[in-house]
Design a protein that fits this description.
Shape: globular
Oligomer: single chain
CATH topology of one domain: Sulfite Oxidase, Chain A, domain 2
Number of helices: 5
Helix content: 25-40%
Strand content: 25-35%
Structural class: alpha+beta
CATH architecture of one domain: Alpha-Beta Complex
């Protein structure tokens, strides 16, 4: 009887030991909450590389700025502005324009009677028995910026002023008697010693030179 009790105590101890061993193994296996081993910590080199990459990414701009203008464009704009600022403006005629001097389609000078009287000396020339008073043709051309020319065309009206005419003449024909006579109506009449009276141009409005 006593022997059976001893065996029973020994068996109970073995069972208890087995249970403790099982529990210890279970706890050891699940102490991290996962069956897989924990990932190794990052090395110092990897941490330094990651920090450098993060810093470079933060410093890099998200977009490049657009240039306001290329050097060539800026220089061209500056040159244009300088030319516009230094260009000599065309004077506004002081009164109604009675004569336009042109060359190659470009206006050289627009004259009012008041401007002519102020800028060009008046002369008196006797032509065909009548006094012609006004600025000489050569003086008007010079004051209009025309110093060299070979031929010209005067545009105005004929003797009866009922039709428009264009009279061509060469520079070699012109002498000191060619004059713009100022009429009583405040217009100009082109006359000259070696220009037939029938070709005198009344109410001259344009003088084209070449």
């Amino acid at each position: 009887m006593f022997a059976n009790r001893g065996l029973m105590r020994s068996g109970g101890a073995l069972v208890a030991a087995a249970v403790v061993a099982v529990l210890a193994g279970f706890l050891a296996t699940n102490c991290n909450g996962e069956d897989e081993p924990a990932a190794p910590a990052a090395t110092a080199t990897e941490a330094t590389t990651a920090a450098s990459t993060s810093t470079a990414t933060a410093a890099a701009p998200t977009g490049s700025a657009t240039a306001v203008g290329t050097p060539a464009t800026t220089a061209t704009a500056a040159a244009t502005a300088t030319a516009a600022a230094t260009a000599t403006p065309t004077p506004t005629p002081n009164g109604p324009v009675i004569l336009s001097v042109t060359r190659g389609g470009k206006l050289m000078k627009a004259w009012s009677l008041a401007d002519l009287e102020k800028a060009v000396a008046f002369s008196t020339v006797m032509l065909d028995g009548d006094d012609q008073n006004g600025p000489l043709l050569t003086a008007v051309l010079a004051s209009s910026g025309v110093t060299e020319w070979t031929k010209a065309t005067a545009i105005g009206f004929g003797e009866s002023r009922s039709f428009e005419i264009e009279v061509d003449f060469a520079a070699s024909q012109v002498n000191g008697t060619w004059i713009f006579d100022v009429t009583n109506r405040g217009t100009l009449k082109l006359a000259g010693e070696n220009l037939d009276r029938a070709k005198w141009v009344r109410d001259v409005k344009e003088l084209r030179v070449e």
